[in-house]
Design brief:
By secondary structure, this protein is α/β, with parallel strands linked by helices. A 5-stranded parallel sheet has the order 2-1-5-6-7, with helices on both faces. A two-stranded antiparallel ribbon has the order 3-4. It is globular, with a radius of gyration of 17 Å. The protein is built from 11 helices and 7 strands.
């Protein structure tokens, strides 16, 4: 990783790729996670590799929603753990939302490695090692959750998500805040708040926003959430991509 010069035009992108590869080497990220990273990076190109105004609005609404929640939980998968472990721990600390490991390609060993990885970045207790409940309607390993965590949460923040679980969580009556660079994905289309941004920008942005909003009263936070329109935000992203492609051509 240190061999990449900081003045390389793709420095940040290359560093992100190396974090994912390192995650695979450590047993944190699945090999399939490499494919997911590449797909996300392609969409990041389409939005100019920056946080769009619509994404910033979604991040503010997400920060307010988490602060208003009675039982918020931050769901962590292998890619998120590899890319933004310290930022996820910080977000958990300042919101009081526990971290819970939830994986599609789940093994007990991999869950333990992710928990240890998060703890190495400052986390205290991390849920997910001993799931004792199941998300209704899911047959994949991602159905396995903790009753004191995701199962009982009113708001679930999922930095990276599978569409079927997003639908199942919404079906349980939960608000789902998802980060997904693909505005057309099932996750983005069904989430309560869809943040179309790179997770390496979105989570640090939300940390700053939570710190800014934490002293505000509930009425102010409710106003932010009420003014946010998820469908309009997704439409704004699609309009930007269309204009961006036209300008390139």
């Amino acid at each position: 990783m240190t061999d990449i010069p900081q003045d390389h035009p793709r420095y940040h992108s290359l560093m992100t790729r190396h974090r994912i590869v390192s995650g695979v080497d450590k047993g944190i990220t699945s090999q399939e996670g490499l494919i997911a990273q590449g797909r996300g990076e392609a969409f990041d190109y389409l939005i100019g590799e920056e946080t769009l105004p619509s994404a910033r609005a979604a991040e503010y609404a997400a920060a307010a929603t988490i602060l208003l929640a009675e039982r918020p939980v931050i769901s962590v998968n292998g890619n998120a753990a590899a890319l933004v472990p310290a930022e996820l721990v910080q977000l958990s600390d300042i919101t009081g939302a526990p971290l819970e490991v939830n994986l599609f390609y789940r093994t007990g060993e991999r869950v333990l490695k992710i928990i240890e990885h998060l703890q190495a970045h400052g986390a205290g207790q991390v849920l997910g090692g001993q799931p004792d409940a199941a998300i209704p309607g899911l047959s994949s390993q991602r159905c396995k959750v903790c009753r004191s965590g995701i199962y009982s949460a009113d708001v679930v923040f999922v930095p990276l998500e599978d569409g079927d679980r997003c639908e199942a969580l919404v079906g349980m009556g939960k608000k789902v805040v998802a980060v997904d660079l693909n505005p057309l994905s099932r996750t983005a289309q069904c989430a309560t708040i869809s943040i179309v941004d790179n997770v390496v920008r979105a989570v640090p942005n939300m940390v700053g926003m939570v710190m800014e909003l934490k002293g505000r009263d509930a009425g102010y936070l409710h106003g932010i959430v009420k003014d946010f329109n998820n469908k309009r935000g997704l439409a704004d992203v699609m309009d930007f991509i269309s204009r961006h492609l036209s300008e390139i051509n």
